[in-house]
């Protein structure tokens, strides 16, 4: 794993650099001797660490994943007004060209955006993308029926039937493991 050395002319970022486990921080202008010292230390530590640095990176990535927060509501614009929709109300989302249709029980709401963008902002413990055009809240699923060629038919609590394509099953295999 590489050592990360921040090089910048702005000293106000030094503290934040070390908070994200930077190896060192070079403040411009710096001399050749300072650069060589950092390089020598990085090489020495690389030889001494024997994988300790890689475990530090893994620890940092785990910490960042734990700290990541997800929204609990979405802002929806309708009829020149805007209101919030709780993500707990959304059973599933489907695409319609440049728009997303949020299915919330008997109601639907339209949101401009892409499914990929929305899926990236929602908690993967709550929502799963099941095909190119659908995202489903996990606790809205009533049952999964094995379908053809590794695909599944997803039956929601409101009796909506969707297809979970093989490509997206492979992205979330942990959801199909037996407890």
List the helices and strands and how they pair.
Blueprint: E1 5-8, H1 14-19, E2 24-27, H2 32-49, H3 52-67, E3 73-78, E4 81-86, E5 92-96, E6 99-104, E7 107-112, H4 115-121, E8 127-131, E9 134-137, E10 141-146, E11 152-156, E12 161-164, H5 166-171
Parallel strand pairs: 1-2
Antiparallel strand pairs: 3-4, 5-6, 5-9, 6-7, 8-9, 10-11, 11-12
Shape: elongated
Strand content: 25-35%
Largest sheet: 5 strands, antiparallel
Q: How many angstroms separate the termini?
A: 35 Å
Roughly how much helix do the residues carry, as a percent range?
A: 25-40%
Query: Helix count, per DSSP?
Result: 5
Overall pLDDT level: 88
Ranges where pLDDT stays below 50 over 5 or more residues in a row are: none
What order do the strands of the largest sheet run in, or round the barrel if closed?
A: 7-6-5-9-8
Indicate the structural class.
alpha+beta
Q: What is the element string, with H for helices and E for strands?
A: EHEHHEEEEEHEEEEEH
| Counted beta strands | 12
What does this structure look like?
The protein is α+β, with helices and mostly antiparallel strands. It is 30% helix and 34% strand. It is built from 5 helices and 12 strands. It has helices at 14-19, 32-49, 52-67, 115-121, 166-171, and strands at residues 5-8, 24-27, 73-78, 81-86, 92-96, 99-104, 107-112, 127-131, 134-137, 141-146, 152-156, 161-164. The strands form 4 sheets. A 5-stranded antiparallel sheet has the order 7-6-5-9-8. Strands 10-11-12 form a 3-stranded antiparallel sheet. A two-stranded parallel ribbon has the order 1-2. The longest helix is centred in the N-terminal third of the chain and has 18 residues, at 32-49. The two termini are 35 Å apart.
């Amino acid at each position: 794993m590489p050592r990360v050395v921040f090089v910048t002319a702005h000293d106000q970022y030094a503290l934040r650099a070390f908070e994200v486990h930077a190896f060192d921080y070079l403040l411009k202008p710096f001399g050749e001797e300072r650069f060589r010292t950092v390089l020598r230390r990085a090489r020495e530590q690389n030889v001494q660490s024997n994988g300790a640095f890689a475990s530090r990176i893994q620890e940092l990535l785990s910490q960042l994943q734990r700290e990541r927060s997800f929204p609990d509501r979405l802002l929806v614009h309708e009829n020149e007004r805007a209101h919030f929709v709780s993500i707990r109300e959304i059973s599933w989302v489907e695409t319609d060209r440049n728009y997303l249709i949020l299915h919330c029980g008997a109601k639907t709401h339209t949101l401009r955006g892409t499914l990929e963008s929305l899926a990236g902002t929602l908690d993967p413990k709550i929502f799963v993308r099941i095909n190119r055009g659908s995202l489903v809240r996990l606790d809205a699923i009533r049952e999964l029926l094995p379908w053809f060629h590794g695909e599944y038919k997803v039956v929601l609590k409101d009796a909506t039937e969707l297809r979970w394509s093989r490509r997206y099953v492979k992205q979330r295999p942990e959801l199909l493991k037996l407890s």
